[in-house]
Specification:
There is one protein chain. With 263 residues, this protein is an alpha+beta fold. The chain has 2 domains: 89 residues, Arc Repressor Mutant, subunit A; 141 residues, no CATH class. The strands form 3 sheets. A 4-stranded antiparallel sheet has the order 4-9-7-8, with helices on one face. Helix 1 packs across helix 2 and helix 2 crosses helix 3. The longest helix has 17 residues. The radius of gyration is 21 Å and the shape is globular. The N and C termini lie far apart (52 Å).
């Protein structure tokens, strides 16, 4: 019998053993570190959030989970067996279902990815992982906004609409910018499936979602000192850069060649 728990049982185990409410990112990290699941897919944090949100939405008071704040949950029953009641901040404010959706406008993003970690061809692999151990996603075909850096200084901001992100960045390795940047960040609009597939651009966006999305991009990209938190709408979808395997192969080959030359 497999020792791997279902996502639901893994979430129950993590939240049930925690003395405090947890954000779904933290729940995901504990599931991975405790080895509760080995098959993570490409978007494990999104899966955890979706499982909790679906349970609360469809099961109501029968759900074992209770939402404490956006993205943060606890088990409904405490150690005393009494149901946990969460007071509202004001009697007139209710939290909409939309506020629990992970993907508003920006579906994925990567910060300060290294230029040298990519094999720059016309269709480069831009590999990212939502968590260590998750299935890598190739963001070569992503669309959206990108920034080029010289060290930590932003030297160029561009957009990718008619050409995919990978192609646009490749062009900057052969144009006037080629020697001026060493890192890049990007903010993507196309959705990512749990299998790591890049989806299609939505037909339209709700106007009410544009302002928080723009605010989140600016906070994340510019890191203003007086903003004490990151862009809320981006907190759950950052991808860690994974070095292109071709780069690793070249490093191994170079090491072997250097060793042979010394013989």
């Amino acid at each position: 019998m497999s020792s791997e728990l279902t996502w639901r049982k893994a979430i129950n185990k993590v939240l049930g053993s925690s003395a405090t409410p947890l954000h779904y990112n933290e729940i995901t990290e504990r599931i991975i570190s405790e080895g509760l699941r080995k098959n993570l897919g490409a978007t494990p944090a999104a899966t955890v959030n979706a499982k909790i949100t679906a349970s609360i939405k469809h099961e109501g008071n029968s759900s074992p989970f209770v939402r404490i704040s956006k993205g943060t949950s606890s088990m409904r029953t405490g150690v005393s067996g009494m149901s946990i009641m969460i007071p509202k901040l004001t009697p007139d404010v209710t939290e909409s279902e939309e506020s629990e959706e992970q993907y508003e406008i920006i579906t994925s993003f990567g910060m300060f990815w290294r230029k040298e970690a990519v094999e720059w061809i016309a269709t480069p692999k831009l590999l990212g992982m939502q968590q260590i151990g998750a299935t890598p996603v190739d963001f070569n075909k992503q669309l959206g906004i990108y920034l080029l850096y010289d060290g930590r200084e932003v030297i160029y901001i561009g957009r990718t609409t008619d050409r995919p992100l990978g192609r646009r960045l490749y062009e900057h390795t052969i144009d006037r910018m080629s020697a001026r940047w060493d890192r890049f960040s990007w903010f993507g609009l196309l959705p990512v499936s749990d299998k790591g597939e890049i989806g299609d651009l939505p037909e339209n966006y709700g106007a009410a979602k544009l302002i928080p999305a723009l605010e989140a991009i600016l906070i994340e990209a510019l890191e203003p000192r007086q903003n004490r938190k990151r862009g809320d709408d981006l907190a759950a979808v950052e991808y860690l850069h994974k070095v292109d395997p071709e780069i690793e192969k070249k490093k191994v080959k170079a090491t072997l060649d250097a060793a042979l030359n010394k013989l």
